[in-house]
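Annex B. Sample input.
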Amino acid sequence: MASTTINRRLAAVSSLFTELNLLDPDRFPHNPVHPLRRDRKPGKSQQSLYRKQPERIPNIVAEEDLQRFFDVLPTWRDRCLVLLMWISCLRISEAVSLRFGDIECSSRSLRIRHGKGDLARTVYMDHYTFAALNKYLDEERRDLFAEVDELFVAFKGVARGRPLSVNAFQHTIEYYAKRCGLPSLHAHLFRHTGITQLVVQGMPEAAIRLFVGHRHIDSLRRYLHLSDEFVASEFDRAQEVFSPPSALGLPPLGGPR
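Annex B, continued. Sample output.
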């Protein structure tokens, strides 16, 4: 089996023993697998069942593909959810679980109560996402299902009136992605694309990690590999403080005048 498969299964067994320890610490005093440590110091030997695996570079969605996908989405609910995952970099589980009480209209912000690792944070919406949310609430949700506190609900089928589930929206993305000729499109690609755009635009790393809910300091490193243009622009910016032509007797750019 691939190293990624082995590590994934070891992580599942590790989670089981962690839960058993919480339920009965006397019978299960320690975790024989141990959680996967990503913050080990270089040079420090530590026995681990986990296998070393190559760092995976996330894919992103091209701008023209995003436009094609938005063109086939039939509802403001679906457009708003995609914008939240893309522009506000939410995970799909965070987006579908939003409640009315999580919205702060004055600052166009959303409170994520239970992010990954139970990490709460505040995220922000741009003008387009905020407008799409208002369109959804005014034209589709209106005063329907007033007893449901979740923002996003199902409008059809046996689940009508119930909070929209992760699985249901994943199927929605899959269906419309195939309709517009993008069969490999899936929910997490929107978040990857949004984080990449924040990195490329030069948003400070600490602010990005807080915004997207990343704990580890090196969590954004893999996103830097996605854009050669980003590396080139950062190199040019760093060289602005130097003037080698005058020091080396080289002619300026454009040759002699």
